[in-house]
Design brief:
CATH topology: TATA-Binding Protein
Keywords: Lipoprotein, Signal
Strand content: 25-35%
Protein name: Membrane lipoprotein lipid attachment site-containing protein
Number of strands: 5
CATH superfamily: Kinase associated domain 1, KA1
Helix content: 25-40%
Number of helices: 3
CATH class: Alpha Beta
Oligomer: single chain
Strand order of the largest sheet: 1-5-4-3-2
Amino acid sequence: MKRYVVPALAMTLLAACSSAGSLRNSKPTASYAGAGSAGDIASCVSNAWGTKPVHLESHVLYTGTTIEIHKTPDGPAVALVDIKPVSDRTVATYYSNFDEDDTWYFEQVAHCVDTTPPPPQ
């Protein structure tokens, strides 16, 4: 049994990575820059998107944060936002492969980037 479970798990993980990777290989739907910290903007986006009936996955890396939208917990990423500090700004780049209108999602990214205050100096 174990010899079938491990390969199946590995394939599932690789499929999730490849779906996010293929989104990043497409043209971004939108890109925004603001003065807030990457962590604060990511928290704002995650809180907003969390109000919808989708499954979210966050990945915090040394280069920033990625938040992925999945329609089901084990389904592929249908959209994601990469939130990264760039010089004295934070850039949020939204990629999408939604099969429905996802304007609300990238409007939330824009709202969070625009309204998140800069960190105190």
